[in-house]
Recover the amino acids of this structure.
């Protein structure tokens, strides 16, 4: 019997780790991975609260989150490939021009 | 048993997440994210979300990560060069994140006392009801999502296309 709060705390910690990675890492692909990690943490919260309230809406929302994450990954990675082709680098420090 | 399973998979998820944070090689980072998503799936299963657990394994740990690994292969990502973050992040980044996580944990402790426990099998998955809800109550968001994904596919192809007609 695991208290429900453990699931929520786990997801809070995962979200914090994702946010920390987003702030401290400099690689564009790692930033995308950290965004995915935060989305996963939020999904865990949705599923846990769906269990707590015995409502299925949370699980439906998780499906939507997965689909949006897929769209985000596809467009994000396309941008990464385009940027790398242009700059030959993935460091966000070097991405300081809007135009090329 | 339930408790042991929870702690094993929670520890795995946390370990992989920390590895994602400290890993300098993006390919290993992608594999760590795959570990996180794969170890979250059993937790979903324990919360009675069997359809979500299956979708998580198939989609998040499978398809999305394959896409990521292919992109990493395409861009020939090297080891990330260590660099100095900006002054705001250097001084306030860690305290702000710890404060945020602490606040969330405090609210959770206040809202969900230890009596509310999750029992396996208490809330059976009801995949059929999820489907019914998806196609009745959430039909409009569902259709909007299909358009979003179509736009994302077209956008990704357009963005990643090699431009040959570009004049310098």
């Amino acid at each position: 019997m695991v208290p429900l709060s453990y699931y929520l705390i786990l997801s809070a910690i995962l979200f914090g780790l994702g946010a920390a990675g987003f702030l401290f890492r400099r690689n564009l692909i790692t930033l995308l991975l950290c965004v995915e990690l935060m989305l996963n943490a939020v999904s865990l919260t949705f599923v846990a609260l769906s269990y707590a309230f015995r409502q299925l809406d949370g699980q439906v929302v998780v499906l939507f989150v997965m689909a949006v994450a897929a769209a985000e990954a596809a467009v994000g990675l396309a941008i990464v490939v385009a940027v790398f082709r242009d700059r030959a680098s993935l460091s966000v420090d070097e991405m300081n021009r809007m135009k090329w | 048993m339930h408790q042991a399973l929870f702690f094993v998979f929670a520890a795995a998820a946390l370990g992989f997440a920390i590895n994602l944070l400290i890993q300098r090689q993006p390919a290993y980072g992608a594999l760590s994210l795959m570990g996180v998503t794969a170890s979250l799936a059993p937790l979903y299963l324990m919360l009675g979300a069997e359809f979500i657990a299956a979708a998580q394994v198939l989609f998040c740990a499978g398809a999305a990560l394959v896409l990521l690994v292919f992109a990493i292969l395409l861009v020939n990502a090297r080891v990330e060069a260590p660099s100095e973050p900006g002054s705001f992040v250097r001084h306030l980044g860690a305290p702000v994140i710890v404060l945020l996580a602490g606040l969330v944990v405090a609210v959770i402790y206040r809202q969900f006392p230890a009596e509310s426990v999750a029992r396996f099998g208490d809330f059976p998955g009801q995949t059929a009801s999820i489907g019914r809800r998806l196609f009745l109550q959430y039909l409009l968001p569902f259709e909007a999502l299909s358009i979003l994904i179509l736009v994302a596919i077209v956008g990704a192809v357009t963005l990643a296309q090699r431009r040959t007609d570009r004049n310098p």
User: Anything to note?
Assistant: The longest strand of chain B covers residues 117-118. The helical segments of chain B are 2-22, 26-46, 50-75, 87-111, 127-136, 139-160.
